[in-house]
């Protein structure tokens, strides 16, 4: 969380307790730590954002949206219909990890941040799009390597601080075909994901808090241990899966706006993901 966000969170916490606020210098460290766990209602970014194009990176969520284990994970029931009740209203039910959705650190760590605790300045951030469509077309089990990141940086400059690094494998165009899940006769999936060395590189060598991909998992299809989920989410970072339209975003210079849901204690959830540039 940025200093401004911490200050805002501390201020709102102190005000909620009818205490005075006169700057972070007077605030015990324990208060700052506690407040930093709250989601600040206001967060000031270091740079201005201006844009003329908006791209929807979100699939429409339907009852048929493919899932990792193959079972439907989204249902809807009409509680009110206009014909009968003069209004429309539905009850929907879904697994948190269906459709274009967020993975919070809590998804693969015992006490990581839940989805409602993700700081705003990590959800509105620079977007770097790594194009691995050629590699993925030749190898459905392709894993994005540190070399792919370095090749990107040669062309587009260093991955910016706070960025969400998203892989464009081309898989979103297969979403309602069998190739999206890529399950073979042995029950093994085949679709691209991140390589563990890339996760470690982004954690240790770059200031990156989010990774995204247009397949249904940060881990490649054949994974047995979900090592990317464990490494990346376990480090306190978030992921976004089943993105779409990344090919309509410039590789560098766009801003991601991650409309993550705000369920208390949630491990993730479908949200609206938008890019502006
Ligand atoms: Zn997920």
TrEMBL record:
Could you say which EC number(s) this protein's record lists?
Answer: 3.5.1.9
What processes in GO biological process is this protein linked to?
L-tryptophan catabolic process to kynurenine
Instruction: Provide the alphabetized UniProt keywords.
Output: Hydrolase
Instruction: Specify one Pfam family.
Output: Cyclase
GO MF annotations for this entry? arylformamidase activity
Q: What class of enzyme is it?
A: hydrolase
Q: Which InterPro entries match?
A: KFase/CYL, KFase_sf
UniProt xrefs under PANTHER family? CYCLASE-LIKE PROTEIN 2
Protein name (Swiss-Prot/TrEMBL): Kynurenine formamidase
- Lineage, highest ranks first: Bacteria, Pseudomonadati, Pseudomonadota, Alphaproteobacteria, Hyphomicrobiales
What gene name is listed for this protein?
kynB_1
């Amino acid at each position: 969380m940025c200093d401004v966000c911490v200050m805002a969170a501390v201020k709102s916490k102190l005000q909620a307790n009818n205490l005075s606020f006169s700057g972070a210098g007077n605030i015990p460290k324990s208060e700052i730590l506690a407040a930093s766990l709250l989601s600040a209602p206001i967060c000031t970014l270091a740079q201005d954002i201006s844009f003329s194009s908006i791209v929807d990176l979100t699939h429409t969520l339907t009852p048929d949206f493919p899932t990792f284990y193959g079972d439907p994970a989204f249902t809807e029931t009409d509680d009110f219909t206009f014909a009968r009740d003069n209004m429309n209203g539905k009850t929907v039910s879904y697994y948190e990890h269906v459709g274009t959705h967020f993975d919070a650190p809590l998804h693969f760590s015992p006490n990581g941040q839940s989805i409602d605790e993700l700081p705003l300045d990590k959800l509105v951030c620079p977007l770097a799009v790594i194009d691995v469509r050629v590699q993925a077309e030749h190898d459905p089990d392709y894993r994005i390597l540190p070399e792919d990141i370095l090749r990107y940086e040669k062309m587009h400059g260093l991955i910016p601080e706070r960025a969400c690094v998203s892989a464009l494998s081309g898989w979103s165009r297969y979403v309602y075909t069998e190739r999206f899940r890529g399950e073979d006769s042995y029950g093994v999936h085949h679709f691209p994901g991140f390589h563990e060395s890339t996760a470690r590189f982004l954690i240790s060598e770059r200031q990156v808090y989010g990774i995204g991909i247009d397949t249904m998992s940060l881990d490649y299809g054949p994974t047995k241990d979900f090592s990317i989920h464990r490494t990346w989410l376990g480090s306190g970072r978030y992921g976004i899966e089943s993105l779409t339209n990344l090919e309509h975003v410039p590789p560098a210079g766009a801003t991601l706006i991650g409309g993550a849901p705000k369920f208390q204690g949630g491990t993730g959830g479908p949200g609206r993901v938008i890019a502006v540039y």
